[in-house]
Write a structure and sequence with these properties.
Blueprint (H helix, E strand, L loop, with lengths): L2 E9 L2 H13 L5 E14 L2 E14 L4 H11 L8 E6 L2 H10 L2
Antiparallel strand pairs: 1-3, 1-4, 2-3
Amino acid sequence: MPTIARLLTYLPTTDAAQSLATALIDARLIACANIGAQVTSLYTWEGTREETPEVQLWLKTRSDLAPDVMAKIEPLHPYDCPLIALDEITVNQAYADWVNAQTR
């Protein structure tokens, strides 16, 4: 079975997620993006406890493009220290073929 790369990041708003996803799709670095529902993130930042609403952004691309996608996300992301998580997932052949056709 074929594999593709799946990346995850969190953004402060749906608009920010759409903007980032659009830039990556327009650059043909990803085949698709899924913007998830709002979540509440709890963390400590610069010594202060935070509770922040965020949206999940899932991105799918070819495995060989994952480093390029990660490199492109960092300067476009509104956070100083964004999470950019990467894993590989097994997918059906038709979906893998579509991802390959949509990316450069």
